Amino acid sequence: MRRVPGDVLVHLRRARDHIDRHFADELDLDELAAIARLSKFHFLRSFASVYGPTPLAYLGERRVERAQDLLRTTNLTVTEVCHAVGYSSLGSFSSRFREIVGETPSAFQARYAVSGAPRIPGCWVFMTGLVEKRADPGTGADGIPTTF
Question: Fewest Cβ atoms closer than 10 Å to its Cβ: which of 54, 60, 108, 137?
Answer without folding.
Answer: 137
